Structures are given as structure tokens and as C-alpha cells.
Amino acid sequence: MRSLEFWFDFSSGYAFFAAQRIDAIAVGLGRTVLWRPYMLGTAYKVTGARGLSSTPLKRDYARRDWARIARHQGLTFQLPANHPHVALAATRAFYWVETQHPELAAAFAKRVFTLYFNDSLDTASPEAVSRLAPEFGLKPGALLAGIADPALKEKVRRIGEDAVARGVFGSPFFIVDEEPFWGWDRMEMMTEWVRTGGW
């Protein structure tokens, strides 16, 4: 089956909501999901944009909107203190898990999202992220070493830069059949595009 690429930053509220639905959408389309965390700051360097939580007016609106979406979807959602965190440790951990145990990668990403937006997981802390390892039958020390591996660090940097070079600039961001869709609110359009063959 062809993949539906799901690009996101672990600190993105809208990506959290997209993560709750993306698997079901993909199944309905006969696709698999390629989970692809990256550092949104990489895109900001190119676009000159700022994150919602760093932008006056947009910050207040986004927080109201996230709370509204959570109520509508029946989800628990609580921003951690000092949001947004720079989720580099969590991103590196994901790619280590994907490399070592690809069958666990999507579940690991979902767990990071849940803990960040409900239990204040410090996604910037390698030690905090490594404590998730036993939930997946992994050793914290191995995950911690993986996060610190220079080769993995380079891989994560390259993945983010390659994504931006392909036009990825937001979170969540989807690519399906080379067609880009930016934003949680484009998921229905993306679904219809694939089902109809586009327009």
C-alpha cells in the first residue's frame, strides 16, 4: 500500500489532534501512514514564520481553539508549563525506535503526544523521554544512547532539512501522491482528494 506522509512537530497542538485521526483516515483510503516528526524551527528559518504560541493574538486564539476541539472530540488536552517545548529529544527518540523496532514507531509517537499534552512530558529532555522505553519493551539506557548517537542526530537534521526542501513548512503537514496539504483542517479535503483522484 502507498503511504500517506504525516509531518509534525511533537509540540504542535493541531498535530496532536491530527494524530488521533490519521490512522483511521489512512485505513479508509487503503493507505499506510508514514509518521514523520521534524523540528518546526527548521521550516521557520526558511519561512521567517513564528510559532502560534510565540505570536500575539494567534497564541490566545490557538489555545481557545485547541480547548474547543478537545471538547468537541471528547479528548483530554492540557498544555504543559512553558509550552512549547523544543521536542528534539523526542524526535530523535522516535527515529531511534523506528530504526531499531519499526513496528513500534507509530505507537511511540502517539504516546509522546498523549504524555506531552496531558502529563507535561518534557520532550526536550533525553532522560524524561527515555523513561518511556519500558512501555515498549525497550531499555531506557539503550534509548538514551540512541538519542545521543551522532549518526542519529545527523539523520534527524537531514530529514528535517529534506522535508523543508520538499515544501513542508507547518505542523501538521500531509503529503499524499505528491499532493501537499497543510493543517488539521485540511484532513477532510485530503481524504476527498484521494478518493476522487483530485480536481
Automatic annotation (TrEMBL):
Which domain of life, per UniProt?
Bacteria
Reaction catalysis annotation: 2-hydroxychromene-2-carboxylate = (3E)-4-(2-hydroxyphenyl)-2-oxobut-3-enoate
Question: TM segments?
Answer: none
- Any GO molecular function: glutathione peroxidase activity
Is the keyword tRNA processing assigned to this protein? no
Q: Could you state one GO biological process linked to this protein?
A: naphthalene catabolic process
Q: Which CDD domains is this protein grouped with? A: DsbA_HCCA_Iso
Which keywords appear in this protein's UniProt record, sorted alphabetically? Isomerase
Instruction: Please state every residue range assigned to the domain named DSBA-like thioredoxin.
Output: 4-191
- Which EC number applies? 5.99.1.4
Active site, per annotation: S12 (nucleophile)
SUPFAM superfamilies in alphabetical order: Thioredoxin-like (SSF52833)
**Does this UniProt record's set of keywords contain Signal?**
no
**InterPro entries in alphabetical order:** DSBA-like_thioredoxin_dom, GST_Kappa/NadH, HCCAis_GSTk, NahD-like, Thioredoxin-like_sf
Q: Which PANTHER family does the record cross-reference, listed alphabetically?
A: GLUTATHIONE S-TRANSFERASE KAPPA, GLUTATHIONE S-TRANSFERASE KAPPA 1
To which protein family does this belong? Belongs to the GST superfamily. NadH family.
The protein's name: 2-hydroxychromene-2-carboxylate isomerase
Identify the species of origin.
Salipiger profundus
Species classification: Bacteria, Pseudomonadati, Pseudomonadota, Alphaproteobacteria, Rhodobacterales
